[in-house]
Recover the amino acids of this structure.
């Protein structure tokens, strides 16, 4: 039977597949850093060439930002669109990496073999699982069982500024029966997962300005307003002592978890102590009275992602800075409107400004939460495929991160998405020493081969 021979081909081809992944990981495609624009393009070209080498009709489509990679291959079964992103997060702080972030290496760890590099898990290793599944299928059978479009984005980690205009202009060519998105994780080491809801995101950068120039803190300290003092007071007021966010109207429209979903999630047996223990913590820090999975998947949050201002270099400088800046983000759930929240957050900040201080806001992306319709028969196919590759039965879970494209596929192209990914909680995505387990890469590839075959079989 051809699925068996495809799976055997995948097994035999692992060393070469890992070499290919390493080649892609060597390209520092950091989308948010203009200095790396050429590298981002190189990663896109690498993927286009890899797709073309397999026989896809593959092209780069330029955008005002980074290019989209699009590949088409005809096939008999339903039409699926595969989405992944080839851009990666910045690497700083570089000093915390054990080796170069773009010098991938296979390593033995107590939990198994891993490939370590920026983007290994998010999302190059994951997107390559699908390409490797296509490669093995083509090598074994000479064709794909479904019509497949591959759509790879290079701006996901910087808020996807070109995505919506692109989908509006050229999305018709991407319209398929279903989108397959590989940018999420397993529920646990042994339990694979299909993500059925994701949080949205709103990013805001706020800069408070006080005096016209930086001041000597002896000459002016006491009489002059310090913008860091203003900023930190505002930020400290984001949450009350029970962990609730204080921006007016923040919880408007937020629904309680349905009893069915609450029961389903309770059945997952999430061990919050172990989850937090992995990262050196022990106590859930979200809203009082909520379960750990609610805090992660179904409750909205406000977080400060970075603060700058004043003197932060070596040694010491007695300065009252002219400006202080914070990057703040909100994870949103169904019912919350990112634009309305932006307005009320800005008004809330402005209302707290003392005399002589001004504030400037810079927007950083906004996407609503998304919920998947799981009625397409491919969900059952995927559930069985994942369950065949991991020890535990696949679970339908929520996700705390944001993958705005799923919402745009639905809104702009009327297309549902199936989110299956193979990352692990300890992959350190967005952090130093990011890695991807070779078992994730291998079983993920096998799972996609099963899914493509299964979808074609109906
Ligand atoms: N792969 C992640 C999203 C993710 C992480 C989903 C963990 C589920 C579990 C994705 O690349 C990502 O980091 N997205 C950003 C989106 C933002 C920059 C618009 C995020 O969630 O912060
Ligand atoms: Zn990602």
């Amino acid at each position: 039977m051809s699925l068996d021979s495809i799976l055997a081909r995948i097994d035999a081809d692992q060393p070469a597949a890992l070499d290919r992944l390493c080649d892609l990981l060597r390209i520092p495609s950091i989308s948010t850093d203009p200095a790396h624009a050429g590298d981002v393009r190189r990663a896109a070209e690498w993927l286009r060439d890899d797709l073309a080498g397999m026989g896809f009709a593959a092209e780069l489509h330029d955008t005002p930002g980074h290019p989209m990679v699009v590949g088409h291959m005809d096939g008999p079964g339903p039409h699926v669109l595969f989405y992944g992103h080839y851009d990666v997060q910045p690497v700083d702080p570089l000093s915390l990496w054990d080796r170069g972030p773009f010098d991938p290496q296979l390593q033995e760890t107590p939990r198994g073999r891993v490939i370590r590099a920026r983007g290994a898990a998010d999302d190059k290793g994951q997107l390559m699982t699908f390409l490797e599944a296509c490669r093995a299928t083509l090598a074994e059978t000479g064709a794909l069982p479904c019509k497949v479009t591959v759509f790879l984005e290079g701006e996901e980690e910087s808020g996807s500024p070109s995505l919506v205009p692109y989908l509006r202009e050229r999305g018709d060519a991407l319209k398929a029966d279903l989108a397959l998105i590989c940018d999420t994780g397993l529920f646990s080491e042994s339990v694979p997962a299909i993500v059925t809801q994701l949080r949205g995101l709103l990013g805001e950068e706020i800069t408070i300005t006080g005096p016209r120039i930086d001041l000597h803190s002896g000459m002016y300290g006491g009489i002059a307003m310090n913008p860091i003092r203003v900023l930190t007071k505002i930020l400290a007021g984001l949450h009350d002592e029970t962990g609730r966010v204080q921006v007016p109207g923040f919880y408007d429209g937020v629904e309680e978890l349905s009893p069915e979903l609450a029961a389903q999630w309770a059945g997952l047996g999430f061990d919050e102590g172990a989850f937090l223990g992995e990262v050196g913590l022990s106590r859930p820090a979200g809203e009082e009275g909520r379960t750990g999975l609610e805090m992660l998947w179904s409750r909205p949050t406000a977080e400060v992602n970075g603060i700058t201002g004043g003197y932060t270099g070596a040694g010491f400088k007695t300065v009252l800075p002219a400006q202080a800046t914070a990057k703040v983000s909100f994870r949103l759930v169904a019912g919350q409107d990112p634009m309305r929240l932006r307005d009320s957050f800005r008004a809330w900040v402005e209302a707290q400004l003392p005399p002589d201080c001004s504030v400037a806001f810079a927007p950083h992306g906004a996407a609503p939460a998304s919920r998947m319709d799981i009625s397409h028969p491919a969900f059952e196919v995927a559930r069985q495929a994942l369950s065949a590759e991991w020890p535990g039965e696949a679970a339908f879970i929520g996700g705390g991160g944001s993958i705005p494209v799923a919402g745009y596929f639905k809104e702009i192209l009327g297309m549902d998405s199936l989110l299956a990914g193979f990352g692990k909680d300890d992959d350190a995505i967005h952090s130093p020493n990011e890695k991807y387990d070779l078992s994730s890469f291998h079983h993920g590839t096998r799972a996609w081969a099963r899914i493509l075959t299964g979808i074609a079989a109906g």
User: Anything to note?
Assistant: The chain has a mean pLDDT of 97. The chain has two domains: 3-198+369-457, 200-254+300-367.
